[in-house]
Design goal:
The protein has 180 residues and is an alpha/beta fold. It contains six helices and five strands; from the N terminus they run E-H-E-H-E-E-E-H-H-H-H. Helix 1 runs parallel beside helix 6.
Length: 180
Amino acid sequence: MAVGSKNPVKIEAVKTCFKNFFDDVSVDAVEVETNPQPIGIEETIRGAVKRGLEALRKTGADLGVGIEAGLIKLEPTVTGYINQHICAIIDKKGRTTIGLSMGFEFPPEVVEKILSGEAKEAEEAMEEISGIKEIGSKTGAIGYLTEEKITRKDLCIQAIISALIPRIKPQLYQDKRPLC
């Protein structure tokens, strides 16, 4: 399988999840073109699907995995948004399964910088607050905010396993819809 990211947290989360359920797992990580921080669930899903499709296209693997974190509008919260990781797993036939992580709120300053365009990614603003360079490739904002009780890898794992469920028990998920 191939994952559409060179982020070590995402790669390790994919390996961990697939090895829990399948034998003989190998993961290719490919660089993909990314967009600024997605805002809204549709844009975040599109980003995850795009990553998975690019990974498939670039490698010819059986499965492409895309993981994208985005700001999802959710009222009433302190900022009006939560951050959520979304995973898309796509096979060669185009069958796509989607999974989501738990959501959490960034500090208001982070959300304001993203919405105003001052920061292209939450990582930029969280680096300023935390003092941790490349925080998104390490413990993540969630790790900093929870004193590492939950890490970015944990969020990725939640999203990946959620997306894997129909692939773990395929007999329960016979898709009657036409492939896209």
